[in-house]
Each structure stands twice: as structure tokens, then as C-alpha cells.
Amino acid sequence: MPVARIGLLAMAFAIGMARATGAQPPAFRVHLVNPDSQFSSATAFDVNQDGRLDIVCGAYWYAAPDWTPRRIRDIEQIRGRFDDYSNLALDVDRDGDLDIISVNYRSSSLYWSRNPGPTAAGRIWDKIVIDRPGHSETGRLVDIDGDGMLDVLPNGTDFAAWYEVVPDADAATGVRWLRHPLPEVLAGHGIGYGDLNGDGRLDIIGPRGWAEGPEDPRRQRWVFHADFRLARDCGIPILCRDVDGDGDQDLVWGRGHHLGLYWSERLPAGASSVSWETTAEELDPDLLEYVRRSIDTGPWRHHTIDARWSNAHTLMQADIDGDGTEDLVAGKRYQGHGGRDPGENDPLSVWWYGFDAQTRTWRDHCISSGGTCGIDVDSTCVDLDGDGDIDVLAPAISGLHWLENLGVGSAQIDRTPPPVDPLERILAHRDPYRLDVWFDPAGRPHGLENWLQHGVRRQQILRQ
User: Fold this and answer.
1) Residue 1 lies in a domain
2) Cβ distance 41 to 374 under 8 Å?
3) Does one domain contain both 398 and 306?
């Protein structure tokens, strides 16, 4: 029998790390807005209506341009974590002011905080519970029913539903929330949305497949398709986009509690994720069936984007380099499981990735590494300073940061300090037998006082 050489493309670990050519990518300046912030979510909107975008993160809003903090909410702390797993900005009561919706894990609740308006400066916003459906990793705003109004899509770990808000003059808050069920198989870690089958309707994506959006999402049944299987700890959201420009929708996803960022390529109808270097007729039928059962992922081919870092719990899309194409932005979550996840004690980092259609690879660009800057469970990419390019908000238990985009070509200008990264500059000062200290860029030893320093020391030892 001819020897069958099987190309195992079910997981094509072709890591797209090609170096950038042509124009220099934008550099970033890392601003530490609040080193003491322990809130995991943030958004940006004009709170005081002065024409500038402000930052809202947890219990505080930060007034531009000097980011003066002002308390607006009382947020419960449950078992050491603030119960504020999303900061979704939406004018819930339609009074012209953006409110905040929080979708939460530890309290199993959804609630919204009513913005009293700029004339009520200093007033604590009212907290209004929407529902207590179960544990949620976080939530996102999506127009699920196509009526032009944003709805709330929780990432429920033990329930699957979406929420619609409608005006109700008879309700005490002026609005009424309607819960609409989704297929229970969507419950888990990771959720996404997009028109996956190209029928013009929104579909909902989970780690174990996707639910086809019906013509009437409020009343008709969603049909689930188990076409693929991603990781059980997918980051949020699972992004639905045409990565390779072939006209169909692919998936981009990360491991929220493990290593790596990945994309799943949608293959043409009838195609297989397994390729053969000989004809199928020449293969042992038993071997062929075994391979198909074991590794064939059907109409999807999985690729690795970057497997060097872990805990990509939040994924975002934004045109970082201004080329008209949305890029991938992600950062490492800080201590999501208290050090129990693979790589969780490694240094924090934030990255953006651009896809090169010619080489079919992703180009990686590190925004920050080795400091206190990470991205936890909900954030945004927005032109925060109004200079025409997209910046990144980075909320984490380790502090709140603003990553300022200095513009395309700025990497050639030596005008901003580099991100804190002692690893490349202290090779001569490492001692693999010193487990109780970490070394700063000058080679000076310091005692280990927190998880960030433990992570830096661990990477110093591994990279010697």
C-alpha cells in the first residue's frame, strides 16, 4: 500500500508573524490613568457634555483632558471582585444621556445605572436591576432583531438569552425589559454575532456552533448548527468577519483562560479541513475513516494567530493603522483565575494584529508589555483624544490605562518612552537560582511583592 502522508491542516499552526514592510506602524504612548483602579470594564462617552470624550470605568468617570476622577456609582464587591463585568453605554430611558449596563458573573445579575444628566453633577447614579438569569462572563450591545435599536447579549455560562428594552410609561423606570430565549447550547464561555450564512440576518455564535437567526428573532425558533467546535474558554466576543477576503465569514477567537489567539477559516461547500498528498482511493479505508473522525473539522480550518501569550479574554476590532481595514486588538487579562490558568502569571501585554491578504498571515504589533497594563473583560477602541486615530482603553484589576495612538509613521520618531519591558535589557543580570527577586532594566534586584513581579521573574528565567 502506498505510504499516505497526511497534511494535518485541521489545526494549521502557521503563525503569521511577518515583520511589517513599507510604512511604519503607529507607535503608542501608555498613560496610567489610575494605578489604583481595580475595575475590569471601561467605556468612553461625553459624560459632562463639554464636547470631549470622557472615560467611564467602574465606579468612576474621568473627565477629559486631565482625567480627573469623579465617583458616580456604588459597586458591590463580591468575594474580592467588583460586580461590574461590563460597561455598556446605552441611552436606556431615552432621555438623551448615556446610561451604563452591567452584565455580571458573581451576582448573576444584569443591571443598569441611570445617568441623571450633567446638571446633577456629584449625584450617585441609581442602580436598577434588570434580571437575575444566572452567571455571565460579560455582555455586549448588538442589534439582534434588526430594528435599529441596540439590545443586550449576555455571555451566560448557564443560560442563553438576549434582552430588549422598550419604553413603558407605566413602569417606574419608564422602560420595560423583555427577555428572549436562545438555544441553551449557546451557554458557555464565549459568544459572538454576525451574519454567518449571508442571509442578511444576525446569527449568534458559540464555542460549539452557531444559531441561525430567524426572520422574527423575538418569536421564532433559532436553529442551531454544530458546524464547528472552538475552545471551551473562548474570549468575548467571538468575532465574525471575512478575514481572507474570499466573500464568506470567518471567525476570530482567543482563549480567555489559556494560550493563544486563533482564526477559523470558512471553507467552500464540500471542502474538507484535511488535505491528502495522495488520492483518497489509495488509502486504507480504515485509516481514512479514523483520520476523518479524529481531526476533520468539516467546513472550517483553524489557524493560529499568536500562541505566545495567554488570557485573551476580550477581543476588539478597530482600524489601528488607518488603512481602511479593521485590525484585531487584544490584551492579557490580569489574574482571571488567581494564577491557576496556563501562563496567567506571565507579564501583562496588549497587542494589535493586521492581516496580510497576500501572505495570509497576521502581523503582530506589541503596544505594551511587562508593566501593569492589561485588558480584563470589557473595553473599547475609540479616538479618545480626537486627533483622528484610534486609541485603546485598557481596564484591569492592575490599573486603568489609556493607550494613545501616535499615528502612522510615529514609530520612526523618538518622542515617546517605550513600554516597560526589562526582559531584553537585563540578560547579563539574570540568576536562574534567584527565585525570590526580579531584576529591573538596570539589573538591580527587587523582592517579589505581587503577581506582576512574579510573572516578570518567571519570564526572565525562561528566556535566559
Assistant:
1) no
2) no
3) yes
